[in-house]
Write a structure and sequence with these properties.
It is a single chain. By secondary structure, the protein is α/β, with parallel strands linked by helices. It folds into three domains: about 15-145, Rossmann fold; about 180-205 and about 220-335, Hypothetical Protein Tm841, Chain: A,domain 3 (2-Layer Sandwich), CATH 3.30.1180.20; about 380-605, Alpha Horseshoe (Serine Threonine Protein Phosphatase 5, Tetratricopeptide repeat). About 45% of the residues lie in helices and about 15% in strands. The protein is built from 19 helices and 14 strands. It has helices spanning about 15-25, 95-105, 120-135, 165-175, 180-190, 240-250, 280-295, 335-340, 380-385, 390-410, 410-425, 430-445, 455-470, 470-490, 500-515, 525-535, 545-565, 585, 590-605, and strands at about 30-35, 45, 60-65, 85-90, 110-115, 140-145, 195-200, 220, 235, 265-275, 300-310, 320-325, 325-330, 330. It has a six-stranded mixed sheet with strand order 1-2-4-3-5-6, with helices on both faces. Helix 6 packs across helix 7 and helix 14 (about 470-490) packs across helix 15 (about 500-515). The longest helix has 21 residues, at about 545-565. The two termini are about 40 Å apart. Mean pLDDT is about 90; it is low at about 1-5, about 365-375 and about 375-385.
């Protein structure tokens, strides 16, 4: 599902971390500020906290190396952290910076440090805590380590994205006025009641360091750290559904790790975290499959689903999955997760239980629109009802021709070729779009949703199936082509041979495509294949023996293929995405739409 990406160059900045923090506090939606002396120390504070007056509740201070944004500074706000201390990229902040954050926020009720389990963080936060305690400040510390991917080590488990849920729960308790002791008790129970595992298709690219290419294209590394530390194993990547099942099983299935498991019917919170460069559409798909797997395969009750970039790793193309019990330390954690916060990075409205996999209550039904049966005619009902019926042989011919054309377009070779050609001029999905549409059309035919009672009805069904199943420019083009062809067939009830009527209908459909799209031969489109085909096919004598007709059709197909091949030399495209592309990038690359048109023409002819 997720795509391997090449290492990216980075914008240069002599102090990118400090510049990023200045940009954060200048964002008028964040209500944050920086503690002096900045940038000697990098501490982000709530705007309503005065360093000279302390804080009237338990203050919460967290932090660590930068490069994991939005953590930790994105979780500073009412109901979450009071301050965040930021080190250099993947480096612990200094004990001095942590000490300054404690002194700036701690009031009579004390200060809680929430630290991810990394040696540098534990040492520097611990040193700062001891220094503050020596001055009479009430300080305690929670260490979060919820990684389940590694065997037990003396250093303990690594802290990962689940730490953010500890921030939220402790922050809600502090906001309502709970004592330091009670917040520590529940916060530590929360940290102990969760598990996290990560997986990625790439390592992260650290500014100023050479790229690490240990993960090969098509591989997935399981259990890697958020600083690019190698994971437990590498394996073939698989689909998003397979990756989701793997990660959820690694965290929660009994016997899969030494630290955490969840029994059937247990209430849990599921967090699907973007490690940096996974696209939103991929993250959404993974979240869907994670939620489905937890509910259906593991039998868990997912009470909350949190999806987003909570704890990233620069530009890593990966995800982590965290599961936390909804009760810990004798407390119901859901009200604390649901409590209000104005921390800029916490997702708004994440207070509802997600529907189960078999519950479609969140999906609106369109009873009369795109979900309607393909067999319902998209053309004029009067014209279709008066069309001459097909005989059994004609019905089978039409059915075979549609399926053969779909098979040609949906085959892997055609899809990959057209996608590769499309990447030269666009987004590289032409072959995939056509293949998916062809597969869906073939399914409609095979499952009896096509009306082959007459040629106009069959063309109308083809147009309707394209309309429902095929998006993009290709979908619009073929919908127009088949709709206009169906109209032509309905009007041509004059006793002419079927082949002549079909060729005339195809010509009418192409004329409609040219009318609305504006393409003419030479514009580097499917027109460059269909026009020479139709010009050649006009000379076919439909009364000739079948073998002669087929030979003539193959000759016309050869003209279409020559036309498609000729698009390699068309470098002054004026229509479509190719019109935005420099001539040198077009030269020598055929138009994928013209190539695909030749493929379905070949499929139709071979069915004869």
């Amino acid at each position: 599902m997720m795509m391997k990406q090449a290492p990216k160059p980075h914008f240069r900045d002599e102090d990118a971390v400090s510049s990023a923090l200045i940009g954060l506090v200048r964002d008028s939606s964040t209500r944050l500020r920086l503690l002096k002396p900045f940038p000697a120390i990098r501490v982000v504070l709530r705007s309503d906290v005065s360093p000279s007056e302390g804080f009237d509740k338990v203050s919460l201070v967290s932090g660590g190396g930068s490069g994991h944004e939005p953590g930790q500074c994105g979780y500073v706000g009412r109901g979450m952290l009071t301050a965040a201390v930021c080190g250099d990229v993947f480096a612990s902040p200094s004990a001095e910076a942590v000490y300054r954050a404690i002194k700036a926020t701690a009031g009579p009720k004390g200060c809680l440090l929430i630290v991810m389990n990394y040696t540098g963080d534990r040492l520097n936060f611990g040193l700062a805590a001891e220094r503050a305690k020596a001055e009479g400040v009430k300080v305690d510390m929670i260490v979060v380590g919820e990684d389940v991917s590694l065997a037990r080590k003396k250093t303990g488990r690594r802290g990962l994205a689940g730490t953010v849920m500890v921030h939220k729960i402790c922050g809600a308790m502090a906001e309502r006025g709970d004592s330091l002791e009670e917040i520590v008790r529940i916060g530590q129970a929360c940290a102990d009641a969760m598990g996290t595992v990560g997986a990625s298709l790439t390592t992260c690219n650290i500014p100023g360091q050479p790229p690490d290419d240990r993960i090969a294209p098509g591989e997935l590394e399981l259990g890697l750290g958020i600083h690019g530390e190698p994971g437990r194993e590498r394996r073939p990547a698989g689909t998003s559904r397979e990756i989701a099942a793997l990660l959820c099983d690694e965290v929660a299935r009994p016997g899969r790790n030494e630290y955490f498991e969840a029994s059937a019917d247990e209430d849990v919170v599921l967090m699907v975290n973007n490690l940096g460069a996974t696209t939103p559409i991929e993250l959404g798909a993974l979240a869907r499959h994670c939620c489905d797997h937890c509910q259906s395969d593991l039998g868990l009750r997912v009470r909350r689903l949190l999806v987003g970039p909570f704890k990233t790793s620069l530009d890593m193309v990966g995800v982590s999955v965290s599961l936390m019990r909804a009760r810990a330390g004798g407390a119901d954690l859901l009200p604390l997760l649901d409590a209000c916060t104005d921390a800029p990075a916490w997702p708004r409205g994440a207070t509802e239980e997600p529907p189960r996999a078999d519950d479609d209550s969140g999906i609106f039904r369109d009873e009369g629109g795109a979900a309607a049966a393909v067999g319902e005619s998209a053309g004029p009902p009067g014209a279709l009802s008066t069309a001459s019926p097909m005989g059994d042989a004609e019905r089978e011919l039409a059915r075979r021709a549609v399926l053969s054309a779909c098979a040609e377009v949906s085959c892997e070779e055609c899809r990959d070729l057209c996608d590769a050609l499309d990447r030269r001029t666009g987004d590289g999905d032409c072959g995939t779009t056509l293949a998916r549409g062809a597969e869906a059309i073939a399914k409609d035919v095979s499952e009896g949703r096509f009306d082959f009672s007459s040629w106009p009805a069959a063309a109308a069904c083809l147009a309707r199936s394209v309309q429902v199943h095929m998006g993009g420019t290709s979908g619009a083009i073929y919908n127009i082509l088949f709709t206009a062809a169906g109209t032509s067939l309905a009007e041509a009830e004059d006793g002419r041979p079927t082949l002549v009527r079909i060729l005339n209908a195809l010509e009418a459909g192409l004329a409609a495509v040219q009318k609305y799209g504006g393409a003419v031969p030479g514009d580097r489109t499917l027109v460059d294949a269909l026009v020479p085909f139709l010009n050649s096919a006009k000379t076919i004598d439909a009364s000739s023996p079948p073998e002669s007709v087929k030979a003539s059709l193959l000759e016309s197909l050869a003209r279409a293929e020559e036309g498609a091949e000729g698009t390699k030399g068309m470098t002054d495209a004026v229509l479509g995405r190719a019109s935005y592309v420099p001539a040198e990038d077009l030269r020598g690359n055929a138009d994928p739409g013209a190539i695909a048109a030749c493929r379905w023409l070949r499929g139709v002819i071979s069915a004869l």
